[in-house]
Queue: 2 jobs
Job 1
Amino acid sequence: MSVRRVQQICLRDLADYLQRATGRTLILEAGDARNCEVAHIPPAGGEVDIAGLANEQAVIIGIFSDKSGWAGQLGSLVASLARGALLLMAVPDPDPGPDLGERFPRAFLDHHTTLLHARNLPPVYVGRILDMGGKRWIVSLHDPAITSAIKELASQPHRPLAILAAYNESDVISEVVLDLLDQGCDVAAIDNWSNDGTWEIIKRLKQLHSDRIHCERFPSDGPARYYEWKKILIRKEEIALSNPGRWIIHTDADEIRRSPFANTTLAQGLMIASHLGANRVSFNLINFRPVENIENATFSINNMRYFEFGDQPGHFVQAKAWFQGAARVDLSNSGGHVARFPSAVEFPYKFLLKHYPIRSQWHGMRKVHIDRRARWSPFEREKLRWHSQYDRLSEWTDFIWPKDKMEYFDEEFWENYGILVFSDLMKDKRRQEQSVNGERPGQDNHGRNKAHSLETEEDGHATGYHREL
């Protein structure tokens, strides 16, 4: 197992993101926020009356070096939430373990979560971070609007519709489709004339779930000579337009999607977004990587545990779920990165996209050299400047990643990485890393081409998003 990395995060950066994303105008500090490595707030004189100033325009950073110190401000904090303020609170982690690689006991995390509920400070997220000095903290996020939406969850009049495109994904298609059903979504599957059994699997699933799955082959008149992604995106737009009044998810056969809120399905997460007045949701992407060259007839994506966050600009442009209104959504002009439509209202909390683009050495070779390169549309390559992400890969490319460079996905993923999922802090981290190391996207810190940075999801090819690839 790789070393689990609790993430070093400045709470002021997170507060700045939440202020921007929610349109709030005020950041307030409580406890030790001005004197703590976890917030990096410049010192200033005078005490602030939190309860008197906090309202729906405020984000409060509450840092309490003494883990029981927040009890003294309990009344003010509860009153602030009642007025609509958003609260970020941090207390020391009392059981950090001797080194960063140790599995962290959940006892205090669970106890602290229970205590917050008992004190009328219900959290929508609880996790761990490192401050700038290397000290571990338990961080909780309290958003009264999200808490209210979760309490009011009920059945939706229309289930979300996941519009899924596939070509030669027989090893994962069943898992992905069934997962979408389990997450409360219906599925419209578009098969681009696969020849590996993908279509036959989709049809069998359709027979078992006839009321939940629609499937078609595209183009309808038979296989095309080329892989024409723009036409597939236009077809997705048409299907979405024929389903007004429901959430639409633009997805692919190697993707798993999750709500950022505990114990909620993808469908419920979208319902929460609706409750807050949003009609579009973005995702943060993590790429799962093969770390051993194992070809297994009983392959499961659940056995792929090693991942890395995106490192290309297009990885952080993922506005791919929307509430379909009367107007047609434009997917094709962004290469599928952004669902554009009038009066889009972005949900402030990003969802998780688990991406499984390369699943073994053999799969990588087949996908790159047979299923993709040999089928690129000349128009999309030459005129739209799409599909260049594999240009520097050769028949000798190694598609196996080193374990020691990867993160490990397990039951503690959300508490250790959740902040990076629902915010844009990872995008800022990547930008800073590349600036410090003198890297260009797609290179390591020695200037060498990284094969693993060159492949991305099938819609990651739009000019302006992946031109550097």
Job 2
Amino acid sequence: MNLADLANQELGNFDPKKDAINNTNQGLPAGDYVVAVEDISHHVYEKSGYDCVRIVFQVTDGEHAGEKEFYNISFATTTKAGKEMPEFVLTRNMKFIAKLGALLGKPVKPSVFAGANETDIHEDIATLLRDGKGTLITLTVTFTPNKKDPSNPYKNYELAPAEQPEAIDVDENDIPF
């Protein structure tokens, strides 16, 4: 892509009087994407202390091929304000991890969530699912309105199976040296 094409693409919806320069990476737009699970890890952000399972998806084909979607999922039982985490948030996160595990061939049992604290739970999940890296799945991205901040809608994810590439069978006779 040349600079003129890039400028047309990026500046078309950019209002230089209102929009922030560095607020450009909003992730993938709504749609269905075949993605490879690039990374699953336990991560703690240095500045905020936010503790989570970090999942990185990379789009494998189409207009957004090569782009990455980062999803942080936490099993903290209290919010940063010290209030109890809403149950629907925790159950949604559990279902996401269970579905991801099923798609990766790594069943997630309820005992995974029985760790002594969120850090242990995040580490156990990352350890369990880590071997599924490289698996292709279908990632559906949707948005729902945020009543408190309409300019920042909620991003939702759904997962589904995707066709896996056939494994290449190579034996010693196929190796040239």
